[in-house]
Every structure is written in structure tokens, then in C-alpha cells.
Amino acid sequence: MAAGVTVFVLTRGTGDTETAQPPLNTNVPAPAQQPPTTTVAPTTQAPAEITEDDLRRQTSQDSTTAERLVGHWVPQLSSKNLGLVVGGVTYDYPAIMADFKSLHDRFPDAVMVNSSDYSNFSRKDFWVTVEASVFASADAANAWCDEQNFAAQDCHASRLTHSGGPAGNSKPRG
Prior knowledge:
This is Zinc ribbon domain-containing protein. This protein is of the alpha+beta class. The protein has helices spanning 52-69, 93-106, 138-147, and strands at residues 5-7, 10-12, 18-20, 24-26, 73-80, 85-86, 89-90, 110-114, 127-131, 156-159, 170-171.
């Protein structure tokens, strides 16, 4: 006994919208024993749907690792906040998350922190990406930035802290 195939025909209605017409039953036999196909929808959000809550979830997810970095020199890879313009890009939440994801893809140990949670940052409400590799000195962390071919303004030594302030906890590259 042959199985039938149901065909849906899409036509353009008024306003250029597609509408499904009633199925056409054909008596064309179905292909023999083809396995069913399954399409899985991606579980990630579309970039335009990224919100501040998503950035906060990322910092929360990374907080255990970030806390282990407190008191140590690490390479700071990025620092972005809402409305910041860098290289012609105006950063919004989706762009900040894309920046983090791009760095995380390149450096899987990278984590995101919020500058408001640490006293070493002079500006608050920045989303900061740091490499979760500790170094014995600021110079050693900066040497890592050099080895990774970062421009001087894009990577520098930073020491996360909850006490004190910015003085002595950041060393720019020359």
C-alpha cells in the first residue's frame, strides 16, 4: 500500500504576506523508507534580544572564577559600557555580549565582571572581560597581552580587589 504525500502551497495574499492554502492530497507514493528529519532550534538568543539581565547572568556565572582572581594580576581584555563608542561601534547590551563572546571564543578562560563589584576600577557600570590566568606581576600580565598581539589600548594588567581603590591595581602598556 503506497503512502500519500501532503503538500502545502504558499501563496501571497494582500500585503505581501504568505498564507497556507489547504493541503493538496496527491497520490504520489512517498519515497521508500526515508528516515525522518529533525530540526532543532538554536537555544541562544538572537543578539537583539540580549538585555542587561543577560550580562548580569554572565557575571553571576563567572563570579566564582572571578573571585579566585582577586588580589592577582590578570590581563584585562575589554571594558565596555552602555553608549560607549569605540571604532565606530556604539555599544549596547547585544554589542557588549558579542564583544565578550568573541573574546571568550578566543580565550576560553575569559570571564566577565562588572566594574561596580570591584574597587580597583575607577569607573562603575562597565562590563569588563579579564583572562582568568594569574601572573606574578603587572609586567608579566602585560607581556601576555604582547604575546597575544593585542594593541596597547586593548589589553593591560589589572588586579581585581574589593578593598582600596584603583591606585596601584592597574598598569597600562606603553
